[in-house]
Structures are given as structure tokens and as C-alpha cells.
Amino acid sequence: MQRFVVGVLYLTAAVILAAGPAQAASRALTPPLYRDDNGWFQENPNARVSPRADPDYRLPNTTKPTHYDIDLSTMVHEGTRAFVGTVKIHVTFEEATTSIVLHARQLIITAATIQFGTTAPEDLEPTYEEEREFLTLTRKTNTPFPKDSQWVVTLDYNGQLRLDNGGFYLSTYNDANGNVRHLATTQFESTDARHAFPCFDEPAMRATFTITMRHSPSYKAISNMPVNTMESSPGVTVFQTTPNMPTYLVAFIVSDFEYTEGVLNSLPQRIYSRPGTEGDQEWALVSGMLILERLAEYYGVPFALPKIDQAAIPDFAAGAMENWGLATYREEYMLYNKDHSTITTQTNIANIIAHEYAHQWFGNYVAIQWWTYLWLKEGFATLFSYKATDAAYPEWGIWQQFHTDDYQGALNNDAGVSPRPMTHYVQKPQEISRLYDTVSYAKAGSVLNMWNHALTDTVFQRGLHNYLTANNFSAAVEDKLFTAIQIASKEENYEIPAKIEDMMGSWTHQGGYPLLTVKRNYDDGSFSVTQQAFHNNETINSDKSWYIPFNYATQSNADFRDTEATNYLLNVKSVSVGAKLGKEEWLILNKQSTGYYRINYDEQNWKLIINGLIHHPFKIHPRNRAQLMHDAYRFSASNRLNHAILLEMLTYLPSEVEYAPWSTANGIINIYNRYLGGDNDYKVFQEFVAEIVTPIYEKLGINDVPGEHHYQKFTRNVAINMACLAGINSCLKETNDKLKDLVEHDVAIEPNVQSQIYCNGLKQSSNDVFDFVYNKLMDSDDQALRRILINSLGCSQNKQQLDKFVSSSIDHDNELRVQERSTLLSPAYSRGLTGWMACMDFLDKHWDAYGNLNGGFGGTNPLDDAIRGMSSYANNEEQENRLLALVAKVKNSVHASANLEEVVEANFKTNRDWLKINRDPLMSWLISYRSNGGATLAISTLSMVSVILLVVSRLF
């Protein structure tokens, strides 16, 4: 399931990079779903191997299902929430017992019987335990059901469609005439199938399903399998029986949706969405057909079902969901209009389809034994969201986005005090929800990508084929994957230095990741590599050790293409490499940054790298150029590296043209801006930013260019944001003028620069302009545009405007959707002191109402999330005092987590420490740089130099 919004986060890069020093929350496009230092993910190796006692949330293994017949009746076309159901569960008794224990949630059981063969059914006595959501059905005769006997349990029940986007729930939209239309849909992962029908709601409890939906003949029903036309009639839709599958992958939708259909290699695919959006379905349909084909080719395993549908849901809390044969999505991740949608939307749709389609094998075809191994499906889905998209659209170069979004995001969030391991035992639904974090997604995807490259794609691909075919239609643990890759290495005659279970297990069984320290011997040309656990706090010591693959490139052999491991640290602290390096040539480890670790070099090598970047930047791979800055920032912010190294490195940027380096630089600059915004010498910082960004800004401008390279459009947006942040007059004027032209003369803003124009234009807008954008948000039914507008409205620096914006989160008479209400505060408080104070004033008065908003998935409360997020942006005593006063008010409420006050105070300390460590050396270097003439070049001269550098660099 796509819990995180995948995409380029132009306006929130600072949050991603700052997750280390400031412990910021997750990506700002969705409510925060993870943190790493708040006590949620305490590493506990023993908990991974033995369940917790008192109470045990796992079902007893006395009974197992083999088949479900589900019959549901709904009048959702009238907006009626009540539904009625009957489920017949074929069960086998693994042990002799008098009772059956399964799950139910928010259901009223009206009858419970059991039958053996053709004998008369007998009544069962139902009892319910709310804490564990256990429905126990007890035999009234007190005679045990015999071991290995097979029975059919029948349960009649009724329930209510939920309003929180979970389980079997109600969604709405307005049709072309402004009338409210209703639909019923599902979201079952992880523990919500039990809301639609009583079931054995654990991922390893696979069974087959036959589903019957009773509904208005004016509506249609769709589900995992094709319709059984022989058994169906108007208003009664019966579906073909599924293969055996987990309960959380069952899905059904009752709606008036329309669809577009395509067929590739005899496999039909359909896109379903609300009427009037059929013209926006084509991109998702074409991408789906291409991506599914590429995945089946790579795995060497055909798609297992006779069809696959995708549906765009108006109200959807997650990003998307991989229901087998019926994937569901937020509308903004499914609908693409070639005239109005952005390149970001186009990219997101392909990427998220690839994520959900990868799950059709990893998670569906082969399930996970328990949520302990969530990474075993989400990590693969993350990795193949890029591998499959790259296979379908190789001209894009999407691995740059993998690097900036997932790889760097994982490194930031996996370096706290006590990061949790990938394999991590949990039981409670709330604990399971909290596993949907960067560890299960981005880190797991990055670790799998590392081994994909280290062992070669040939071995990795063969290993995945082995894993899928050996465990098909069953549930697996990580050892099954390790064994499959081990076998693949033998089949491919590929020599590996240790057992796969030891090498990969060292990454799955312990949290965090290593820091490689490289020291060169400039006399004999050799170098040593030493590993230690990396933490953002450099004072933390750990005895962790990993099996680490690595490789390297040099100035005289700057070939970054072959990413296979040439060397290993095999669970040892240090290794020496007998290279013959010249004294004046740079050394760079980890080609294309495929290894999941950070690398610190001796100061002389850093200087050689900087010299190489300045004079011949394109000899170094763009993802390495990005990561060199990313690592240098982290090292300088934690007293591991002189700040001058990073700042001197940034001076190469006037000759940079690629997205990943610019996105990384943008993140660093935004962190600095966040902390230095109120500094007396802030102008010096702005001048430096202006110097490094002016060439790329003048080269790309603020106007979209049809036909240019995919990621050049992303780079333009970074350049616009940085140029306006730097106070470059042309940027401020042109963005404001574009917004005014829209408001006053209805001159459309090109979709690909909308976010930048809206945000930077709103920083200096009148109330009329602000109200225009605000009303556009409320009137729009384009969810991707709504996302842009929400993020942009928070850019205002006018207190009155911001008060109106944040207050709308609790105004239930406006047009905000359920999942949008808790996303309004972050764009405001993360944009500066004015927005932060507006959020503070709002929460002071309305904290309870805000806390009562539906927070969606993740097990956290909107108020708790907002306070944690705001604490990461509090840089002065007044902010700290006000926020602590609010914490004192709310800490004993149902909205606050037990450790809220502790986390807030820790974030305050982190911010103070950051300023203490970084402010003076940063400003000293910047002032010295300016005084030495570094920032005195005229814009025209900078532009000329940039062009010359670009031309010359490409000759080498």
C-alpha cells in the first residue's frame, strides 16, 4: 500500500533534509505517519522472535479458514450508511476445541450457526472482546469439534459504512449538476477487513472468496475478480471465486463509476472513476498495461488473475492500495489531464501504479507471514515503483527521483537515537499502523536496491523468480527470500563472499546504517575503509556491524556505470584496499550511490573532490554529486566535518544542470534559511544563494517549455524557489505578475509551474489575490490541483490571510475533503514565523476541534502531529514558551500521546544545538566569501560564466 505520497517535494525539501537535526515529521503532502526518535520504534531484538504476553493479539491457531462466501446488501445510492451481510466461512479445525476465535469490528452479529456436511446447523454462542476485537463462537454442547474436521460457519450481521476512509466506507462527490453522489468502497489493510465481514484477519490466513453484492440496479459493483455473469442479475452482482488470498486484499466498490478498458496480451485492464472524468483515464490505463507487462517479464511469473482494474476514489486516506485485481487510488494519483495536469502528476501516477502492481506479486501472490515482515512487500513495491517505471519510460531518468525522495529520505529518518530494524515484531493494530514508515518503505527499498546492484541484476532477478515460484499462493518470511537468492547465486555461478542470510540479515535485524570512514595513504596509493553505526548525534556509540558491499571510482578511471560490488566489509570494522591512486586524483566510493550508507573522507580527499566538481563536474555521476552534498551537510551539522568543505562544494553549482544535485542543494539551502531567516546577517546568506542559483534560473526561466527533458521541468521548479528565496528581483516580480495576470486577466498559469507561481506569488499578495486562490481551492474537483493550492496558500506571509486558511480546517461547511483537513497547518508553520504564529493562535483557541479531525491512517492524532511538527520549527524563546503552554493544556487529553512533551522539548533542544553548532561557522564563511569577492559578480557575468562552464564541462 502506498501510504506516502510519492513525488517531488519542491516546497518541503527542507523538511526531508532537516529530519535529522530537527527531527521533523514526514513529507508534508500527507499527515505525518512516522518518526524515529519519539519512542515509538525502540529496537528490541527479543520482541522479534517471541510474541508479547498479556494480552496476545494474535488469533489462536486452532481454526483456519479455507473459503468465504460473502453476501452484502447496500443502499448506498441513497446515501444510506447501513449495510447487511451474511458470511459463510469454511473452516478446518487444526486442534480439537469447543470454540472458534476470529475478528470483527463495529458489527452487530444477529445469528451464528455451524454446520458439518449436510447435517442440521447448530447455533453458536457469540461473545465479543472489544480490546482485541475477538469474536468468539462457542459450541453450546461443550463438545469439542474434532481435529481435522471441516465445517461451515454462517454469520448474519449488520453494520454502518464508515466515514473515516477505513474498512467498508462511504465516499461522495458532486456531479456536473452539483448534486451529491454516494459510493461505497473499501480500504482493508492492515486490520479493517473485519469491519466489512467477520474473518480471520491475519495476512497468513489465506482463503478463497466468493463475493455477492446486492445494490441498486442503477449502480455497478466491482471486486477482485470478474463478474460471474451466469449467476448475476440486475442489482445482484456475483463475482468469480478468487484464488486463496489474505483478507486485507479483498475489495469491492458499489458506485456509478465509468470506465475505460484496454487489453494487452489477452489481459484486460480497466480504469474506473466518477462520471465526467473518463477523458482523464488514458494515462493510467496505458501506464498500467506497460508496467504490468514489464513486471511480469522481470519476475518471469505471469500475473495470476484474469483481469486487473484500477479505481480512483474521491475520499481516500492512503495514497493507493494494492487489492488483488482491483487497485484503488486517490484521484490525484490516477487521473491525468494532458492540458491541465503537471509533469509531477504524470510521474506520480506511473510511479504509484508500479508500486501497487509490484504488490500483485510481492504481498498478493506471495503474502507475508505476519506484519513483522511488512518490509518484505513494501520494500519491493518501493524498489519496483522505480524499476518498473524506468523500464516503461527509460527516457525519464527516474532514478534521480528515487535518490532524492526515498534514498535520502531513508538516510535522514534512520539515524535517530534508536532506529527500529526492518524486521520488527508488533501485535496491536496501532502498532501495525506505525510500521508503515520510512523503514518499511524507503529504507527497505534502498537496502534491496543495494543488493540488487552489489550482486548484479542477473542474480537478483533470478533470486526473485525463485522466491515467487517457491512460495506462490502462500505466506513467507525473510529467510525464504534469502534462500532464493542464495540458490540463484549458485544457479548463475556467481561467487558470493558469505551467506546471503548473514549479509542481508545484518541489514534487516538491526536498525540504522553504517558510516564508512575512508582514509587514504597518499604515499602508496592505498586506502582504508572503517565502519561504525551512523547517528545524527555524533556522541552516540554503538557496536553494530554490517556486511557492506562497496566499489569505487577515481579521477583517472571515472567510470560509474558498473555498480557491482568489488569489495566488502564482511561484518568487520575495517578493510584495506590496495589501490594505486595518484596523489592528486579524487577517490569516490559507492558508484551511483546505490549502497545504503554515508561516506566521510579525509579532508584532503574532500578538497580533491571539490576541485573535481568545480572543474569537471560531469565526470562524477549526478547521483554521486547529489550525495556528496547530502553527506557533507550531515557531517558538518554534526561536528564531523568543517563547514567550509560543504560551502566550498556548493560553489560548483553554477555549472550544475541535473535535478538530483539541485534538489539536494535546495534542501540544504532551505534548512539554512529555516534557521537563519531572522539572523542579522541574513542578507549575506541570500547573496550567496543568489550567486549559485542565478545561472540555472536564468537558463531555465519561469516559463514551461514543451518537449524538454522530463526532469528539467523539475529542476526549473527548484530554481524558481531558490531564486525567490534569495530575493532575486526578477523572480519575485515575474511570479507575482503571473499570478496577477491569472486573477485580473484570466491568463492561465502553465500547469508545470503552478506550484511555484502560486506559492511565491502569494508571499506578497493582496487579500483579493489570496481570496481568489482560496476560492479556487474550494471550487476545484481536481485533487492534484487542490494539493498544490493547499501547499501554496500556506506560503502567504499575511497574518489575516493565514488565519482564514488554517481556520478553514475545522469549518465543516466548506468544501475541504476529510483527508485534506489535517494537511493545512504544515504548509503554514513550515514557511516562516508569520505562519507559525498563525497556527499557534489557531490551536490555542481550537485545539480540541482540531484534535477531533480524522487523522486517517498512521495511528496518530492531527493535534499531536501538528504540535510535534511545529516544535521542529521553533527557533526562539517566545515560540518555545507558547508551544509549551499549549502542550500543558492538551497533554492530558485524548489527542496527545504520552511522550508529546518529551518530544517537543527534545526538538527545542535540537534546534538550539543546531544554531549553536552551525550558525557562527556558516556566517563567518559567508561573510569571508563575500569580502573576498565571491558574491560580487553581476548577474550578467554569472550567466556568461555559467554558459562557458556548461560548454567546456561537456567536452570532458
Automatic annotation (TrEMBL):
Domain ERAP1-like C-terminal as annotated: residue spans: 586-893
Enzyme Commission (EC) number: 3.4.11.-
Membrane topology: Lipid-anchor; GPI-anchor
Protein keywords: Aminopeptidase, Cell membrane, Disulfide bond, Glycoprotein, GPI-anchor, Hydrolase, Lipoprotein, Membrane, Metal-binding, Metalloprotease, Protease, Signal, Transmembrane, Transmembrane helix, Zinc
Subcellular localization: Cell membrane
Catalytic activity: Release of an N-terminal amino acid, Xaa-|-Yaa- from a peptide, amide or arylamide. Xaa is preferably Ala, but may be most amino acids including Pro (slow action). When a terminal hydrophobic residue is followed by a prolyl residue, the two may be released as an intact Xaa-Pro dipeptide
Enzyme class: hydrolase
GO cellular component annotations of the record: cytoplasm; extracellular space; plasma membrane; side of membrane
CDD domains given in the database record: M1_APN-Q_like (cd09601)
Signal peptide span: 1-24
Cofactor(s) the protein requires to work: Zn(2+)
Transmembrane feature ranges: 933-952
Name of the featured protein: Aminopeptidase
Organism: Stomoxys calcitrans (Stable fly)
